[in-house]
Predict the structure.
Amino acid sequence: MNMDVTQLFTRADGAYVFARWGRPIVPVIFGVDDASLSVFKGAIEAVVALAGHKMAETDADLGANLMVFFCRDWDELTDVPHLDQLVPDLHPLVARLKQADANQYRIFRFDTAGAIRAAFVFLRMDDHLAQVASDTLALSQAVQTILLWSDRAFDDAPPLAMIDDKAVLRPEIADVIRAAYDPVMPAAAHDPSHALRLAARVVPPS
């Protein structure tokens, strides 16, 4: 495999940080029409199935644990009821996103074992994102929330590739996702040796 698994989970500060979901995923998407809602939920279901993980109708703690928010302007987030209770630093976060002219941001929450227990995805539909096909955007976000990837994991190459004008998950990334959810693998890891175990499961047997 022509990919360094270690770099996918090694952050810019040099720390190795891996986590997968420790509970069934319950998604909810805000700010889109019914057609886009169906596309997003379909993409999440496909990636969860690829991982061999599960989805559920409700989460015991939050009701929904994967929340995707679409907006035209970051200030809209501060008007979402109770969002500041889920994201306590919401106002300074919005200020940082505006200053950076960002168009997307993800926040993860973890359980006591270090596994992902919730994720919040914020998407500002600027001119760039507005030109991205809904199925491409949906698949990209689903892939980037199924694991806690490094903040620079996809700097060199995106997780998706275009084939006949259709976005598909790169096979090597799909293999990493499947390997990461192998039941014998830990739900969270901070030792780079974890990447070697992942890589051993990614490389097909000869």
